[in-house]
Amino acid sequence: MRNDIVHIGAGELTYEIRAIVEIADTLQRMGIKTNMENIGDPIAKGEKIPRWIKKVVADLVMEDCTYGYCPTRGVLETREFLAEQTNLRGKAQIRPDDILFFNGLGDAIQKVYGFLRRESRVIGPSPTYSTHSSAEAAHAGTRPISYRLDPDNHWYPDLDDLRLSVKYNPAIAGILIINPDNPTGAVYPERILREMIAIAKEYDLFVICDEVYHNLVFNGQSTKPLSDIIGDVPGMALRGISKEVPWPGARCGWMEVYNADKDPMFQRYVQSILNAKMVEVCSTTLPQKAIPRLLAHPEYRAYLEERKARYERASNIAYEVLKEVPGIKANRTNGAFYMSVVINRELLTHRQTLPIANEDVRNLVEGLVNQPGISLDKRFVYYLLASTGICVVPLSSFCTPEQGFRITLLERDEQEFTRIFQTIAANITTYLNS
Asked: What is the mean pLDDT of residues 186-191?
C-alpha cells in the first residue's frame, strides 16, 4: 500500500491460549480425542449452572428494561450495590460514579492501556496473563516491561526486581498486580501487597489490580483487595462475573477507581477512559441488572463455597501427582483455577519427542516443531497434545523466559482429572529422557 497502515504494536498482540485451539481442532479432525485444558472457561468444562441463577436471568429477560441502553458508566443500582459492597469490605470508600462497566475485562484492559500516553509504561508480572502483556506492549509498540514472579517462592513477586526496575526505568508510570494470579494460581499475602503499594507511593505511580478471581481463594490462604491497602495511592481494581458466577459469556466486567481526586493527571486519564466509553454508548445491560440479584441471592454463598472446595481438591491432586516428577517445579495452586509448571530449561532440547501413533499427525507435529524460533516448551506442548490429546498452553507465551506449561483445574470428573495429571507426569519423564 502507499502508506504503512499497520499499528506499531500489532506484532505484540498474541494470545496462545486460544491460538493452540486451532491445532487441537485440526488434530480432532484427524482422529485425536482431546482434553481442552487450555482456557479458563468453567462452562466449557461442564460447569452446571444452578437453576436459581438461570431463574434470575430468565426473570430479567422478561423485563423490557434489560433490552435497552444503560448509562455509560453502567446501571446505577448495580453500581450503588457494588460501591456499598466495597465500602463495607474495604477501607477505601468509593461512590457509584467511581465504578465503570465494560464489555468484559478484555474490553477494560484494552482501554486501560490504550489510553495511556505511549511513552508511559505499566510494569507487569512475569509470567503474566496474555491479555495484559499484549495490550500494554501494543500500546507502547515494544516488548512488555516485567517484574519476576519466583517459582521457587510460591510464585510470589520478586520485590527487589520490581523496585530496581521501577527505580531505573523512569518511563514506568504504573504497576500491574494480578491477585489471585493467572497463570500461576498464586495468592499474595497482605505483606507483599503492601510492599508493592509502598513502591508505587514512593515513585509516584498508579496501581492496576486485576481481581477477577478475588473470591476464588482456598487451601487456607487469604489475601486483601486493593481497596483495603491502597491508602492514598491512585489505583483501579478490575472485577467481573465471568469466573466467579461463572458467566463468561455475559462479557461483563467493571473497574473500581480509587483516589482519582488526589492526582489531577490520574483523574484526567480516568476521564479519558470514561469518554471512550461514551463514544460506545454503554456496556451490556442484562448481566449488569443481574449482578445484585445474583451476588445477594441466599444460595450464592453456598454455591461459591462448593466450587472453591472442588478447586481445592483439584489443586491438591495436581500438586501431589506432579511434585515428585524430576526436572520440574510445581507449586500448589491457592487461588483461581490454574497451575503453572516450570520445566528445567537445561533439560530441554530440540531433539526430544513423544510417540505419536498416527503417521499423518506425526508429520503435522514435526512440521510445527521444526518452525524457526519455536520455543522449547511449545515443542513439548505440541508433542503432548498429539501423543495424549491433552491441550495445555506453553508457559513462555505468558511473557516469561521460564519454560513449561499452564493447565486449568476445571475438569469436574475427579477420576478423569487424576488421569490427565498422571498422564502428563508420565509424559514429562518420557519426553525429558527421549
From this structure: 98
Task: Provide DSSP, 339-361.
Answer: EEEEE-GGG--SS-----S-HHH
Per-domain boundaries in the chain: 10-47+301-432, 51-295
Looking at residue 397, what DSSP letter applies? G
For residue 73, CA distances in Å to 99, 114, 270, 271, 378 come to 7, 18, 12, 11, 41
CA distance 153 to 71: 45
Contact yes or no for 217/334 (Cβ under 8 A):
yes
Strands 404-408 and 121-126: unpaired
pLDDT in tens, 299-332: 999 999 999 999 999 999 999 999 999 999 999 9
Burial class (CB in 10 A: 0-12, 13-18, 19+), 306: exposed
Which CATH number is correct for 10-47+301-432, 2.30.30.40, 3.90.1150.10, 3.30.70.270, 3.40.30.10? 3.90.1150.10
The grid cell for 238 is 478490575
Q: 51-295, which class in CATH?
A: alpha beta
Helix segments in 236-375, DSSP class H: 264-280, 285-295, 300-322, 359-369
**Do 42 and 243 form a contact (C-beta atoms < 8 A)?**
yes
Give the predicted TM-score (pTM) of the model: 0.95
| Same topology between domain 10-47+301-432 and domain 51-295 | no
Tell me how far CA of residue 182 lies from CA of 275, 364, 367, in angstroms: 29, 31, 31
Reply yes or no on whether the pLDDT at 5 is more than 80: no
